[in-house]
Protein 1
Amino acid sequence: LNTKKQAPTVNSNCCSFEDYKLTTEWLLNQTSHRPKVAVICGSGLGLLANAVNNRQSFRYEDIPNFPVSTIPGHEGCLVFGTIKDQCCVFMQGRVHLYEGYSLCKVTFPVRIFKLLGVETLVVTNASGGICQDYKVGDIMVIKDHINLPGFAGQHPLCGPNDERFGVRFPCMSDAYSKDLRRLALDISSEMGCSDFVREGVYCMVSGPNFETIAEARMLQVLGCDAVGMSTVPEVTVAKHCGIRVFGLSLITNKVSLDYSREEMVNHEDVLLTGKMRAEFLQKLVATLIIRCNHQEQ
Ligand SMILES: O=P(O)(O)O[C@H]1O[C@H](CO)[C@@H](O)[C@H]1O
Ligand code: HPA
């Protein structure tokens, strides 16, 4: 009798270690950049990559195995370069669960970053403000998150665990680096922008529809300050493989919690808010990259 436990096939990871290796080797052969920091640019935030010098850019569709963005505001370019003497890589655009990608594909780039030698990941996103104090254009330093799809089994680490990346049961209580959160708040205060920079809890929903009022009220009760349709899978996979994480949410709209409110959210307005705060966000992220110390974990 074969008593060896069989790994389940449902929900198992769709990318093999060989897939990750192939993509990494392809990139290492194409560029001499060896980034220590990676940045994922959220909806309308691709401009963040304009901070780099010595730029070398690849379209996602030209990179073997790389998932391709399908929505406006996500350019789909992987940009290598330097900021001062820091070598970094920017993803101009990400992919989402609601586009039809598995969470394994959604987080594929994060494991590529790991294999490229990245030690720090900066995630950014556009999100709706649940916290009543938040205004459109505010920036929320992510202190913690709620993985709502994860509670329902839509989790990037479901399936056989590859020990080469991390342990079966990773700890998430310190997912967002305290040092980098403090540094970001210090930089914002030096820039005189503390009045619109806050700290809070991000909640991921699967989307693609924006929340109903009843759903928004539920998220408020759960302790969410901002809501979006991304980021959490990337952060989870980064933390699993030992990458230090820092996250920023741009509040692009206020989420309706009240049936008498008439304003309706749409993706075009989300992208417009991104443009409004692009300059500040670019400076904040660039300064953070210059000042973050890679020895701290
Ligand atoms: O999270 P990012 O990629 O910034 O995008 C946000 O903006 C889109 C909705 O306008 C959704 O995809 C939401 O998640
Ligand atoms: O209000 C929102 N809800 C979910 N995702 C979002 N991304 C930007 N705004 C929102």
Protein 2
Amino acid sequence: MRALDPWLPRDVPGVRRFLAAAGAAAACSAALTVAQAVLFSHIVVAGFLGGRDVRDVVPALLGFAGVGAARAALGWTSETGARTAASRMVAELRGRVLRRIVRARPGSVPTGEAVTVTTDGVEALETYVARFLPQLATAALAPPAILAWVAFRDVPSALVMAGTLPLVPLFGALIGRTTSARTRERWRALAVMSGHFLDVVTGLTTLRAHRRGRAQAAAIAATGDRYRRETMRVLRTAFLSAFVLELAATLGTALVAVGIGLRLTTGGIGLEAGLAVLVLAPELYGPLRGLAAEFHAGADGLTASRRLSALLALPPAVPAPARPRPAAFGTVRLADVTAAYDGPPVLTVTSLEIRPGELTALVGDSGAGKSTLLALLMRFAEPSSGLITVDGTDLAAFDPDEWRRLVAWLPQRPRLRPGPVLEAIAPAEPGGLSPVAAAELACAGSLVHRTVGEAGDGLSAGEVRRVALARALARPAPLLLLDEPTAHLDETTARRVTGALLTLGDRTLVVATHDPRLAASADQVIDLTGSRAGALT
Ligand SMILES: Nc1ncnc2c1ncn2[C@@H]1O[C@H](COP(=O)(O)OP(=O)(O)OP(=O)(O)O)[C@@H](O)[C@H]1O
């Protein structure tokens, strides 16, 4: 297992500084540990065994207390500093990942993956940064510093230490190879479980309506059980590794102690030096044992960091160029445009002109590419080839978010913000229709006192659509892209909605529809049937 993912110091601001601070704290802590051992052995040998006057060892006693206080203060400062820095870093990272997910092509990140990575994954990374990385710095710096001092005072003990010390990281690395595979499996099981659970909760109303709710219980139990088994496997490895590493460290300390004991009886080493080395022996293995204790926090954090970096590397659905939106809304032209989703083109449009103030109806068989064309105009995706222009300027030259300020969208499967219907309709920006007027236009006037539940609960599919249409109409956008505005509506309501759309003479409408009456009212009708095979419009 690699201890540090290179993208972390490279791409996350503050990690380098954090590592440098952790390294400096570890070096100070090692120096203080050696000083404390030296003072301790001096006090014991001179004050108690040497029979000197207590006053002679007062300076050493004061020094010992001072070093102890300094170690405690350093430990406290490092820990609180690490926690604060880690939570700040991770909060920034969570924001970046969320922004990247939002900018990615819709549907390109599985929901379960997005949820687990931005919740549990980010928390695992916080533990990794706050606990594992400082421990890693201590384990890298403290043992060599202690070993160097021991070599200076007692070469045989230093040789025993140098021989046994690598056993701890060696065993750790061997166990780590198994651990990282197991941890990856555990995360995969968690993502599957989250995604499945979310799907079931979202579709609970439908499942209950068809009396299939209970059938899902077994499926949830199975995914939950898989996650439980993976977690238990990881825990088993964790306990085993802690045991093996403790054993290696204890054996090392025992060998040093036996060597010093034998040489003390033959006079091969002085009591003060022997005692200092003996006190330092557990301190030598301590940082590596501490690292082993944090090993699983490390493995979890590394897996999370890999997944986070994969999400951060997601290409945005459309790159964001510097140019803002067009100064005024004009004619939109499509020339030789094709669109594809990770495969062959699903839409080909040779030539299409969307003129200001007109109603353009997109018709055609199911799957013909109507929603795809609206997605291109929304800039949720870029054309695979060809050009879309606004008054002669390439649409790709404009900032997608700025462009979307000019566009109101009724999606094929609208989602409403839970809460009062009026709030769901109210546009975020000023200048549009009042929510009540927009609701009246969309034949949703009778719904304005109703409340939307989670996932549109409390409203029928047709009511959700009318409220979502009102939301689109309320926005002060000159271009309206409406995906099946009359779907799920009875004939009378559909006719009233069509009539209302025809009164929006100052706005440009592009409507994907299967409703012949709505299509008949349009200024131009574009039939996309066969456009997948390249039958050009
Ligand atoms: N996210 C996606 N990933 C892969 N293929 C997709 C995706 N969305 C749509 N498609 C495919 O692209 C083609 C065009 O789909 P689109 O939704 O644009 O059709 P449509 O004309 O709006 O259909 P409908 O009238 O049924 O709503 C279809 O073959 C569809 O399977």
Protein 3
Amino acid sequence: MGTYQTVQEREKALALFETKDAKGRLAFRLFSSSIFIGICLIWLYRLMNIPAAEEGRARWGCWIGMFMAEFGFGLYWILNQAIRWNVVRYFPLKERLSRSSDDDLPRVDVFVCTADPTLEPPSLVINTILSVMSLNYPTEKLSIYLSDDGGSQLTFHAFMEASHFAKHWIPFCKRFNVEPRSPEAYFTQDFDVRDTANPEEWMFIKNQYKDMKKRIEAVTDKGCVPEEIKNQHKGFSEWNADVTKQNHQPIVQFVIDGRDTDAVDSAGCRLPTLVYMAREKRPGWPHHFKAGAMNALIRVSSEISNGAIILNLDCDMYANNADSIREALCFLMDENRGHQIAYVQHPQNYNNITKNDLYGNSPPVSNKVELAGVGGFGAALYCGTGCFHRRASLCGSKYSKEYKGLRNLETRKDDTRTVGDLEEASKVLASCGYEQGTLWGKEMGLVYGCPVEDIVTGLTIQCRGWKSVYYNPDNKAFFGVAPPTLDIALVQFTRWSDGMFQIFLSKYCPFIYGHNKIKLGAQMGYSVYLLWAPFSLPNLYYAIALPLSLLHGIPLFPEVSSRWFIPFAYVFLSKNIYSVAEALTCGSTFKAWWNLQRIWVIRRTTAFFFAFIDCIVRQLGLSQTTFSITAKVVTEDVSKRYQQEIMEFGSTSIMFTVISTLAMLNLFSLAGVLKMVFLGGSEYKDIEKLICQVILCGLMAMLNAPVYEALFVRKDRGSIPASVMFKSIVVASLACLLPLK
Ligand SMILES: O=c1ccn([C@@H]2O[C@H](COP(=O)(O)OP(=O)(O)O[C@H]3O[C@H](CO)[C@@H](O)[C@H](O)[C@H]3O)[C@@H](O)[C@H]2O)c(=O)[nH]1
Ligand SMILES: [Mn+2]
């Protein structure tokens, strides 16, 4: 035991990471309990005020709706407390890791997935590749695999270009400690060349990068690779006239063989291994989208480098922090607790978030509190990108105490096979038929059949006994591209909420599949996300019932003078004040919080609701799982409005019709109230009964201000098209005419 007095002391001194509980837990728990009492009182109020039979059908309808909605809100609120109950933060101690020699470090395989050269331009993809190639990690232990589901020679061409540019970029990064490590992100930062350590070299690298980008874009624009370039790499011969995105043979090509002593950068240091893979695609063979690509990568990489750690990135997620591998290893290699950890997940951060995050793409509260709270139960969600996996757990191993210590991260000795042999052996593993009759997609690798393959895979890993870590450092490890338009953002949320509800309804439901395997808090934490879709219903009910009942003068809440008013007011105010305070302490602006409220209303009344319907339809066996890829580039015009935080509509999506119909409904009902106050002879008493609805509808109208602007004021291409406006006015007017009394 050496100089340490107790086991605990020794463990503490050798630990590679620390955990800390978030501050103010007790205060939060007390406060949250008080809101809970308020919610119970609201439920009680509803139960005590069941309308009598003679009060008419409309009253009954309203009552049932309000009761169900508030019951739903209450339940969802309870789930949300679970993820705030146990917030834990993780701190790696990377200096301690450096005490042991680099020889002890495991091999790391990086997987980058891309699927479409138009939606995901090759120049974007290679920035991700270059950023991971230049991470601070022994290059002979680093292998990078690009999976191209687009099967495109344009992407392969860019990949080859990147391998040449890397020879300059890697030494440059390491010498000057450049961050971020994506050349595009680095060179578009605004700084003065004269402030750089070596202006000449800086300019040289920048020009090299610019030239490469130009060459890549020229080829991408042209849509094919010129013959003279094709001669530079034998890999191009894979693309003949028959190769299409949906129909081609497996392609596996080494672009750099890290074992090759001649593969060195301009400073003479060895380069990491670089492999391109386009798994076989044939019509009639399901390819399971990203999950299928990842599983093929797992197999191909096991043949080639077999790194014990796998870093998984989407093609738009470049590395920002050069030490991120080492930090992740602190968790996975910790002698005492590391062997239980299957993966380390970073939050999704984006480099294109504007000041007030108009579409709520990256809410600080979600990253700093909610996800950390699920992580607090040892069940950090796997989010598909920015995640360091232990190969063993990703491949389906059950957790066992035997993994203790560092030995589990050892990998086999160098292979002596030639590149050609390795490529041939790998192609077999990347072929369509390989998975037939195997457990791939079921118990091995990523789980198939769900558009959120990441969440369900993380859950199954945890149910096999593993823990996971949610790690959110101040120096962000990765940055991706957030959806820059409302339409793209809503399509993404439709896929997510649909997929997540599908998990809840499947055998993987955390309460059933995870029973006795993960903690109750984790089951509840998962449900917060998995139940997005069905919890759209109470929101949609409120969004319709409030304005309509106001218009018809049907009170839904207790009068202000009644004692029952208190719990309603308390819950509403304290919940929202807390939410603002939480957002501000997490570094959000008030405006960003306000924007987030709007986008949540929009998501719940559109994306989640449509997902709910889609999911039910699929459960009935009427449709199949799809995956709509998120576009990462938009036109300049659109991008300018995004920068100015102006909401982008500009298409006739049915979601926009719903958004503007609900906005119109609010406007009509408020107009009705004004009429009542100024023209109608109604007494003050009538208005008093409706005051809660007036306030809520007023707030909704304020939240909808950008929608009204897009409907009536704006003339640009991002405003709401006249046809959508027309439809919404008709539908809202018809709704107002419904006889409710
Ligand atoms: O058939 C496919 C479809 C997608 N992808 C890749 O999957 C990644 C994610 O796709 P994207 O369209 O960017 O979806 P997002 O909604 O931005 O992705 C989030 O949500 C997905 C699950 O819905 C996760 O897989 C992702 O990791 C996570 O970032 C991208 O790199 C794609 O290239 C494939 O490799 N093959
Ligand atoms: Mn994405």
